[in-house]
């Protein structure tokens, strides 16, 4: 469905969540911190701690996102 939306609305930028929730190898998912606080409350929704961590990751990726 995302690909269909991208075709219909090419001006909308997409960001692959794996780019900031996993390491470069794709073998490690950042799901908890050193105190074992969870970053996800289910299969894909962030906890408050996760939103803070991943929000910072997305901000670092911002220069790599191509805006139209």
Using brief descriptors, characterize the structure shown.
68 residues, mainly alpha, 3 helices, 37% helix
Report what the structure shows.
By secondary structure, this protein is mostly helical. It is built from 3 helices and no strands. The longest helix has 14 residues.
How many individual helices? 3
Spatial gap, N to C terminus: 21 Å
| Biggest sheet features | none
Estimate the helix proportion, in percent.
25-40%
* Structural class designation: mainly alpha
Overall average pLDDT = 84
Following the backbone from N to C, one meets helices and strands in this order, namely HHH
User: Strand fraction band?
Assistant: under 5%
How many distinct beta strands? 0
CA-based gyration radius: 14 Å
Q: Please tell me what the overall shape is.
A: elongated
What layout of secondary structure does this protein have?
Elements: H1 2-8, H2 18-21, H3 48-61
Short recap of the structure:
The protein is mostly helical and 68 residues long.
């Amino acid at each position: 469905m995302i690909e269909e939306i991208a075709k219909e609305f090419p001006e909308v930028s997409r960001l692959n969540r794996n780019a900031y929730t996993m390491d470069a190898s794709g073998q490690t998912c950042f799901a908890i911190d050193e105190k074992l606080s969870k970053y996800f409350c289910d299969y894909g929704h962030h906890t408050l701690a996760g939103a803070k961590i991943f929000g910072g990751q997305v901000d670092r990726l911002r220069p790599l996102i191509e805006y139209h």
